[in-house]
Design goal:
heterodimer; A: about 190 residues; mainly alpha; 7 helices; about 80% helix; B: about 100 residues; alpha+beta; Arc Repressor Mutant, subunit A; 3-stranded antiparallel sheet; about 50% helix; elongated
């Protein structure tokens, strides 16, 4: 009798743990917002280069784009994230991973390029390799193969952009953002959103 | 101690509702009172009493904050709680294996 109760207890525990771990409430909204802002910035930047408007104006453009993205993150974090009834370990790890990637990309984009440490033509491939790390790790954390496989798209694009430098990077990167970030963001939002 | 001595099990955890709370909190980073109540299907009063018992032995920690002017209490399992739960599961498994 006691043994049966204990077996029942163990099954009960396993059931609760399995159900809680299935809780994938990751939001695709972050991917959608950045996947909307960055391609706009890249396309405008490409037009500016074609029209010979390089320099400080590009910095203003990216300041506006990146500033809007971070402003959204702060508002979303305050309005939505802190109200979530439960936070899984996967969400916590993934959140910190993407926060660190966001900070890294912001530093590389503004300080790295304006200081001349990173040549403007290699910003896109460098960003691409870093985004690949994010997707590869997120896919692993959430145990979703197709998210992990997006990393290969980012790495592949980075190789092409490293081997063949040029201003076309901006348009290729915009296309990659839409294919490997905006669309996946919508899929995640549709599948997992609360 | 007999081969099948249930007294080896932690009394604090060995209650269905507290076991459910511990199992839930061990598998997430944090959860609020309402979420736990819905998952373990307990009443407010019952859950409060059992969570307090887990807090008293420092298996669970709580954090109170205001969201939209409403008080929200969030719970997390502590390192001590993790260890106690792991020990409980190991002992339970060992007893069943005998």
């Amino acid at each position: 009798m006691i043994k049966e109760t204990m077996q029942d207890d163990l099954a009960f525990i396993k059931g609760i743990i399995a159900e809680s771990r299935k809780n994938r409430s990751a939001s695709g909204i972050h991917l959608i917002v950045w996947g909307f802002l960055i391609p706009i910035g890249l396309i405008i930047d490409w037009f500016m280069i074609v029209k010979g408007l390089q320099g400080i104006k590009e910095l203003y453009l990216w300041g506006l784009i990146i500033g809007s993205g971070w402003l959204f993150e702060m508002i979303y974090g305050w309005k939505v994230d802190r109200k979530k009834p439960v936070r899984t370990y996967a969400e916590k790890v993934d959140g910190f991973l993407w926060l660190s990637i966001g900070i890294t990309l912001t530093i590389l984009g503004f300080v790295g390029s304006s200081s001349g440490a990173i040549h403007a033509q290699f910003i896109s491939p460098v960003f691409s390799t870093i985004l690949a790390i994010g997707y590869f790790s997120s896919g692993f954390v959430y145990e979703v193969k197709w998210i992990r496989n997006l990393a290969f798209g980012w790495w592949g694009g980075a190789i092409i952009m490293f081997i063949f430098p040029g201003h076309y990077h901006l348009l290729l990167m915009a296309g990659m953002m839409i294919a490997f970030q905006t669309i996946p963001g919508f899929i995640i939002q549709k599948t997992w959103a609360d | 101690m007999s081969d099948f001595d249930y007294k080896q099990l932690d009394d604090i955890i060995h209650s269905r509702i507290r076991l459910a709370i511990m199992a839930l909190l061990v598998s997430v980073d944090s959860a609020n009172f309402v979420y736990i109540r819905e998952k373990v299907k307990a009443s407010d009063g019952n859950l409060s009493v059992h969570i307090r018992k887990l807090e008293n032995v420092k298996y669970v920690s709580s954090n109170k904050k205001f969201v939209d002017r409403k008080p929200v209490t969030t719970y997390k399992i502590t390192l001590l709680g993790h260890k106690a739960f792991e020990t409980y599961i190991n002992r339970l498994s060992n007893l069943l294996d005998k």
